[in-house]
Amino acid sequence: MTAVTLNPGIQNRNLPSYLDPQHLGPWATYLEQVERVTPYLGQLAYWIDSLKRPQRILIVDCPIRLDDGSVAHFEGYRVQHNTSRGPGKGGVRFHQNVNLSEVMALSAWMTIKHAAVNLPYGGAKGGIRVDPRTLSITELERLTRRYTSEIGFIIGPDKDIPAPDVNTNPQVMAWMMDTYSMNTGRTATGVVTGKPVNLGGSLGRADATGRGVFVAATEAMKQVGVPLEGARVAVQGFGNVGGAAARIFHDHGAKVVAIQDVTGTIFSSAGIDPKAALEFLRRTGKIVGFPGTETLEPHELWTVECEVLIPAALEGVITEKTAPLITARVVVEGANGPTTPAADDILLEKGVLVVPDVLANAGGVTVSYFEWVQDFSSFFWTEDEINARLDRIMKEAFSSLWEVSQRHKVSLRTAAYIVACTRVLEAHALRGIYP
Ligand code: GLU
Questions:
Q1: 276 alpha carbon – ligand 1 mean position (Å)
Q2: Who wins on pLDDT, 22 or 208?
Q3: CATH classification of 54-189 is 3.40.50.10860, yes or no?
Q4: Which of 26, 57, 231, 317 supports an S-S bond with 307, CB 3.0-4.6 Å?
Q5: Cβ(387) – ligand 1 distance below 6 Å
Q6: 154-158 contacts: CB < 8 A, separation 24 or more?
Q7: For range 286-306, the mean pLDDT
Q8: pLDDT score at 11
Q9: Across all residues in the chain, what is the average pLDDT?
Q10: Sorting pLDDT into bands at 50, 70 and 90, what band is 7?
């Protein structure tokens, strides 16, 4: 590459006009993370502006008939942040707070995640602004199908492959796969991942994110000298990620001392059996009241004495306010974007090792990648093969990012961004700008 002068866009934020600078939300966190890493990118920094705006944004109206005969409209999004290294990939979230800034940030974090772990994908994300608890199962199916139809022309097995995220699951993926297949006149199992196993889903996908969190956490614990046996673990989020991670930690001799979900926060210094707590949640609809635990106020979660803290719910929860309270030696980000840049600085200062989302929760999309490969080849692997490959990818990713963080004397997040941005921008530079 020839010598270049820095693009002035690096000096200012160069925001797209459709964003309100006063309400950047999670996109501000992402922008700051990219800005922090720019000085480490050398001449590739010339291209950095391409990471500061998504390639494609689709906002759709999803009207559905409710069971009572009325019609309700829901906002749906699909954002393809970057496809330099491959088709878009990323989950679909159903949540009442979904908005453009959030979906943009989530799509960008997918770009970084795939490049950090070296999966051959770009980054994308989708969502519907809805509280799914307010819908019946048939309403939820109609909403999923209408949304899938509306975004249908930009997704596809070789274009952009959705997957589960907050409040979506294999059943939602089955409806998405069916809708896309009906609209295109063929059964296209590879259009989504995280499907039920008997529809082309992968063994091991359900636990993959939690398993990856566990593997990344144990690698980090080795680095800071925290033994797994008896390690106290606090988890925020008790769904697909937090629930599985808690169970796997417990099965390996760690002690899960606190669990928080949307229904409340429970604590026990003697340790909680996550399997029994999940069963209690299924039966009663809440975790509070689980025998042998005391109930905490939500903010008290951050003060719980523990070695490992796993935020596995939503973004922006570890802030300037909560970071100083944290006692853990290792924070493992099961959620996407749980820590703000200011909180990152506080944790670094306190000597807390943060395993960033783009590494810690990459196990989910890694097994999504396996699922997609299996669907393409119509040849399915055993669970042992899947878990062994997942563990290897997670360990190798950890050790290569750890090495970069040591070499540059930077946090693991900055190391992950150095590696990821370099891979994405190199691909971008090689492809060049069309036309
Ligand atoms: N929603 C998950 C994530 O944030 C999984 C995405 C996927 O499997 O495509 O990584």
A1: 27
A2: 208
A3: yes
A4: 231
A5: no
A6: 154/56, 154/58, 154/78, 154/80, 155/78, 155/88, 155/180, 155/191, 156/87, 156/180, 156/184, 156/188, 156/191, 157/87, 157/188, 157/190, 157/191, 157/372, 157/375, 157/376, 158/87
A7: 98
A8: 40
A9: 96
A10: very low
Which secondary structure element, helix H or strand E, spans residue 266, and what is its range? strand 264-267
Go through the chain and tell me how many residues it has: 435
- Which of the 8 DSSP states describes residue 334? -
Check whether 3 has a pLDDT greater than 50: no
Nearest-atom index, ligand 1, CA of 90: 9
d(CA 322, CA 4): 42
CA–CA gap between residue 186 and residue 182 (Å, rounded): 7
Say if ligand 1 is within 6 A of residue 210 CB.
no
- Sign of CA pseudo-dihedral 271, 273, 278, 283: negative
The residues annotated with a catalytic role in the active site are: 125
Answer whether 165 contacts ligand 1 (Cβ < 6 A): yes
Domain 208-351 in the same topology as domain 54-189: yes
- Ligand 1 centroid, distance to 180 Cα (angstroms): 19
From the CB of 202, is ligand 1 less than 6 Å away? no
Q: Which of 131, 85, 87, 125 is nearest to 109 (CA)?
A: 125
Asked if the model's pLDDT at residue 2 lies above 50, the reply is: no
Task: Indicate whether residue 333 lines ligand 1 (CB < 6 A).
Answer: no
Please provide residue 30's backbone torsions phi and psi, each rounded to the nearest 5 degrees.
-60, -45
Residue with structure tokens 């999966």?
A: 119
Burial 359-370 (b: 16+ CB within 10 A, else e): bbbbbbbbbbbb
Spatial contact of 344 and 338, defined as CB atoms under 8 Å apart: no
| Single pTM value for the model | 0.96
pLDDT in the model for residue 13: 61
Ligand 1 centroid, distance to 124 Cα (angstroms): 9
C-beta 90 within 6 A of ligand 1: yes
Closest residue (by CA) to atom 8 of ligand 1? 365
- Decide: 212 and 387 in contact? Cβ < 8 Å: no
Topology given in CATH for the domain delimited by 208-351 = Rossmann fold (3.40.50)
Domain locations along the chain: 54-189, 208-351
* 9 pLDDT higher than 60: no
CA dist 224 and 227 (Å) reads: 9
Q: Which tens digits make up the pLDDT trace of 74-107?
A: 999 999 999 999 999 999 999 999 999 999 999 9
Q: Which ligand 1 atom is at minimum distance from the Cα of 165?
A: 1
pLDDT tens by residue, 134-164: 999 999 999 999 999 999 999 999 999 999 9
